[in-house]
Amino acid sequence: MSILEWGLQIVLLALLGAAIPFALRLERALREIRRDRGAMETSAQGLNEAARMAEAAMVRLRASAELAGRQIAERTAQAEPLRDDLRYLIERAESLADRLEGLVRAGRPMAADAPRAAEPAPALQSQAERDLLRAISLGAARAGR
């Protein structure tokens, strides 16, 4: 072998010696990447499982919201006739209250002028009973003069 061949082999050997630390560093980096890849796959599986559970929870939530909406619609439909009845009764009550107030106002001057009876008249009397009581009280008043 010639000196040139020996020189080239020494240079090649030096280059190979210099490449060994780089190869070791590369091998360590590849080992870390493989380890991180396993952790990443595990976390990806966990993420997939969490996403699946979230989707299932959303389906259950949507179903319960639809059920609640239907129940509210049914109760609202049941309450509407009651609301209409109450509105009608309130209107009638207001008109009756207005009539009663007018009658009370009109009756106050007559109540102040009329003599008071010893016994209070029953609350529920027919028109004939009221007329009879008025005639009796007028007759008694004339007889007393």
Describe the 3D structure.
- InterPro entries: DUF6468.
- Keywords: Membrane, Transmembrane, Transmembrane helix.
- Residues 33-108 form the DUF6468 domain.
- It holds the Pfam family DUF6468.
- The protein has 145 residues and is an all-alpha fold.
- The chain has a domain at 7-79.
- Helix content is 88%, strand content 0%.
- The chain has two helices and no strands.
- It has helices at 3-113, 127-143.
- The longest helix is centred in the middle third of the chain and has 111 residues, at 3-113.
- The termini are far apart.
- The model has no long low-confidence stretch (mean pLDDT 86).
Attribute tags:
0% strand, mainly alpha, 145 residues
Short structural description:
The protein has 145 residues and is mainly alpha-helical. It contains two helices and no strands.
Helix and strand succession?
A: HH
Shape: rod-shaped
Percent of residues in beta strands: under 5%
How would you state the average pLDDT, rounded?
Answer: 86
Q: Could you give the count of β-strands?
A: 0
> Distance between termini?
172 Å
- The total of helices stands at 2
Structural Rg: 53 Å
Main β sheet profile:
none
Helix content: over 70%
State the assembly state of the protein chains: single chain
Helix/strand structural class:
mainly alpha
Unreliable segments of 5+ consecutive residues: none
